[in-house]
Amino acid sequence: MGLIFSKQFVTVLLLIILVLVWSSVWSLFRIAMEAIPPFSFRVIIGLPAFLLLLILGYKKVKTVKIPRNNIKSLLLISFFNVTLWQILMLYGITMLGGGRAAVLTYTMPVWATIFAAIFGYEKINFSIIVSLILGMIGIFFLSIEINIFENLFGFLITLSAGLSWAIGTMIVKYGGIKSDGLIVAGWQQLIGIIPIIPFALYYDLNNFGEIELRHILIIFYGIFFSSAYTYWAYFTVLQKFSVNITSISVMTVPVLAVLIDYFMIDFPFSTLDLFALIFIISGIYIAATRPFNKNSTKIDKSL
């Protein structure tokens, strides 16, 4: 009993730290990209994180190999959870601000539930429909606040980041990967970054600003926490807890990100921002808890 409680406590602690890191990176990365372009920033923090994760993983399980039957899922997770998610998210931060980008991308649990239903892993039910409606209302309020017609591209790429993350989350949960979280997270970093490198070399070499100490500190924070820790912890938590528990915990991230943006960056926070936050978090909560469908069941299929 004590051992079970201890393991559960460690997983809960991982989840709390994960939420705090996720909440802080939005404002910090916005500062970093004042001097470092998004493609290069992703490569700079991702490659060291890849090495760190594989070294730690090897010390733990004495191998860095991924079973052959897990390769397909690993490639898909890397593409959606690193390549697309990270680049779209970073550009979204530069265009919308950290807090608003967080609110928009953290519609992820709503989309993850919908994609799981589309692919047959879960049944479409009234809770999913209500969750989608609430999420759409929240997105509507946010689109008004950012004046979507003047910033349509920023809005679309940020929303696409959430969609990409949702697909990756669904694959993590239902894709059948049983390897150690450190090893999977490490290979995710490398595989997901490889397609980004040519774009960084082509677009970014002449677009760096003056790099200061604060930018360097954010890079280290990105390596050890945003890249290494979060990918390992998120994969580990998803394996230990249900996607519902993880999704409910995710609800706190956009709230904290908006508060950090407001108090530390002095970024404006309006009534429409508040309405968007309320509706999107409500949608996430309903997607995670299914209060209107207590007897709903999952369809157990492999990817």
Which structural category fits the helices and strands? mainly alpha
| Low-confidence parts | 296-303
Radius of gyration: 19 Å
Principal-axis shape equals: globular
User: How many alpha or pi helices?
Assistant: 13
What profile does the largest beta sheet have? none
Strand content: under 5%
CA(first)-CA(last) distance:
34 Å
Mean pLDDT equals: 82
Structurally, how many domains make up the residues? 1
- N-to-C series of helices and strands: HHHHHHHHHHHHH
What is the tally of beta strands? 0
Q: In percent, how helical is the residue content? A: over 70%
Description:
The protein is mainly α and 303 residues long. The chain has one domain. Helices cover 76% and strands 0% of the residues. The protein contains 13 helices and no strands. Helix 6 packs antiparallel against helix 13 (271-289). It is globular. The two termini are 34 Å apart.
Search tags:
mainly alpha; globular; 13 helices; 303 residues; 76% helix
